[in-house]
Amino acid sequence: MAGIGFASEAELLRIQVDELERSLWHLEKSNQELMEADPHDPVYRQAIIENEDVIHRKRAKVADLKAQLESISSHAAYYPPAPARPAQQARRADGPDLGVFL
After folding, report:
1. Is the pTM of this model over 0.85?
2. What's in the keyword line of the UniProt record (predicted)?
3. What is the residue range of 21's domain?
4. C-alpha pair distances (Å), 8 with each of 4, 54, 92, 97, 102
5. Per residue in 10-40, pLDDT tens?
6. Fewest CB atoms less than 10 Å from the CB: which of 3, 4, 29, 85?
């Protein structure tokens, strides 16, 4: 994840959490609809059981991702990035102005 220039690791973790939580919402809604349709239908009951297993795994993954996010956030708060120096301070006082190097 660290090599991607478009999003930070924290942003990617938040995106994953959002996707998983949206998936959880749909699974829980599906289970509710199946129970309301016919709580005694064996096919529906099996689908609900399978959904519950998936829900359990996804909740564990969300908890893990949130723990990673918390770790990153607390690390960033403890070790904030160094302030950028203005261009004038970056130049050596006793040397010539060599321009900007990229």
Report:
1. no
2. Coiled coil, Mitochondrion
3. 9-90
4. 7, 28, 33, 34, 22
5. 999 999 999 999 999 999 999 999 999 999 9
6. 3
